[in-house]
Write a structure and sequence with these properties.
The chain has 323 residues and is α/β, with parallel strands linked by helices. It has two domains: 196 residues, 3-Layer(aba) Sandwich (Rossmann fold), CATH 3.40.50; 106 residues, Putative methyltransferase TM0872, insert domain (DNA polymerase, domain 1). 38% of the residues lie in helices and 14% in strands. The protein has a seven-stranded mixed β-sheet, with helices on both faces. Helix 2 links the parallel strand 1 and strand 2. The longest helix has 15 residues. The chain is globular, with a radius of gyration of 20 Å.
C-alpha cells in the first residue's frame, strides 16, 4: 500500500484529515493573544478550529475554492458565529476580502486536502477509478483529462519534468502523446497504468506509486498553483499588520523556493545565491523567524505520514511598504 505525501492511494476509509505542523503554526501565530487572523487554505478546517479555540478574542477569515469546504465550514460558523467568516474563493482573491494591515497572522497550507484525495469524483487519486479531473475548483478551468489530450508537448514537458520532477519525463510525455484519442487519458486508473508502464513499472521497496510525480505535475499545471502562490504572497504581506506573522506550509520544492525567495526579499536579504544586488538596493520590511525551514517532528511523521514532506517558513512583518 502506498501512502504518499502528495498523492494518497490508500483506501478512503483509512485516511483522516490531520492538520500538519499544527503546534508549530500555533506557536508562531500565537492566536492566544487574540486579534484578527486568516487561514487561506481551509481544507478540513483543522488549523482554523485551533486558531478559533485559542481565544474568545480571535476573529478569523478562512478561504477555500473547493465547493465542499463551504459545507465543512458550516460547523465552525455554528460554533463561533460572527467570529468566523468563510469565503468560497481561491486565495488569490484575498485582496478582495481584506484591507491593508488587517491581520495579526496569516496561515497558508499548500497541501492538498485529504477530503479532496478521498473523493473519487475529484479525480486526484489513482487508486480510485474516476474521470481524471484534479481541479482544486471544479467549477472553473480545464480538467486534467482535457489537458492530457490537448496540451502542447512543451506544456506536457513542463508539467512532468519541471513540476513533477519525474526523471523519466521523456518516456512519460511520449506515452501520453501516443495515448491520445484511445480513452486511456480519461480516467485515473488507466492514466496511472500508462505512466507506470512508461517509467518501467513498479519497483521493489518503492516508497511512492510510479505515477505520483506525473500526477503531481499535471495537478500543479492545470491549477496554475505556482503562479497563484507568487501572485498571492505580496497581497498577503500587504494585509498583515506590522508585527504580524505569515506562516506558509509547502510540500513541493518549487513552492518552497517561491516562498523562501519572497521572504528573503521582504527581509532585505539576497533572494538566492545568484542574487548580485547591493545591500543599498534592498529594503527590509520583515524578518525571517528562522533562516531554514521547519520540518515536522519524528513523532508527527510516524502518526501522520502525509506530513513527512511538509516544511514551514515564517515571516514577521516589521513595517509596511510605502509604495
Amino acid at each position: 500500500m502506498y501512502c504518499g505525501a502528495v498523492e494518497f492511494v490508500c483506501s478512503p476509509s483509512a485516511v483522516s484529515h490531520i492538520p500538519v505542523l499544527l503546534d508549530e503554526c500555533m506557536g508562531f501565530l500565537d492566536p492566544c493573544r487574540g486579534g484578527s487572523f486568516a487561514d487561506l487554505t481551509f481544507g478540513g478546517g483543522g488549523h482554523s478550529r485551533k486558531i478559533l479555540e485559542a481565544s474568545p478574542n480571535v476573529r478569523l477569515l478562512s478561504m477555500d475554492c473547493d465547493p465542499d469546504a463551504k459545507i465543512r465550514a458550516g460547523n465552525l460558523e455554528s460554533a463561533y458565529g460572527d467570529r468566523f467568516r468563510f469565503v468560497d474563493s481561491d486565495f488569490q482573491s484575498i485582496d478582495q476580502y481584506s484591507g491593508a494591515q488587517e491581520f495579526d497572522g496569516v496561515l497558508m497550507d499548500l497541501g492538498i486536502s485529504s477530503f479532496q484525495l478521498m473523493e473519487a469524483a475529484k479525480g486526484f487519486s489513482f487508486r480510485l477509478d474516476a474521470p481524471i479531473d484534479m481541479r482544486l475548483n471544479p467549477r472553473v478551468g480545464q480538467s486534467a483529462a482535457d489537458f492530457l489530450e490537448t496540451a502542447s508537448r512543451e506544456s506536457l514537458v513542463r508539467a512532468v519534468r519541471e513540476y513533477g520532477e519525474e526523471r523519466r519525463w521523456s518516456r512519460v510525455v511520449n506515452a501520453i502523446v501516443d495515448a491520445r484519442g484511445t480513452g486511456k487519458l480519461q480516467r485515473t486508473l488507466s492514466a496511472a497504468e500508462l505512466v507506470t508502464q512508461a517509467v518501467g513499472g513498479v519497483r521493489a521497496r518503492q516508497r511512492i506509486h510510479p505515477a505520483t510525480k506525473t500526477f503531481q505535475g499535471v495537478r500543479i499545471a492545470i491549477n496554475g498553483e505556482l503562479e497563484a502562490l507568487a501572485m498571492t504572497l505580496p497581497k498577503v504581506f500587504r494585509a498583515l499588520k506590522p508585527g504580524g506573522m505569515l506562516a506558509v506550509i509547502s510540500f513541493h520544492s518549487l513552492e518552497d523556493r517561491i516562498v523562501k525567495r519572497f521572504m528573503r526579499k521582504m527581509s532585505g536579504r539576497p533572494q538566492h545565491r545568484g542574487d548580485r544586488s547591493f545591500v543599498a538596493e534592498r529594503t527590509a520590511y520583515a524578518e525571517m523567524v528562522q533562516s531554514k525551514a521547519i520540518f515536522p517532528r519524528k513523532d508527527e511523521v510516524e502518526s501522520n505520514p502525509k506530513s513527512r514532506s511538509a516544511r514551514l517558513r515564517v515571516l514577521k512583518k516589521i513595517r509596511h511598504p510605502e509604495f
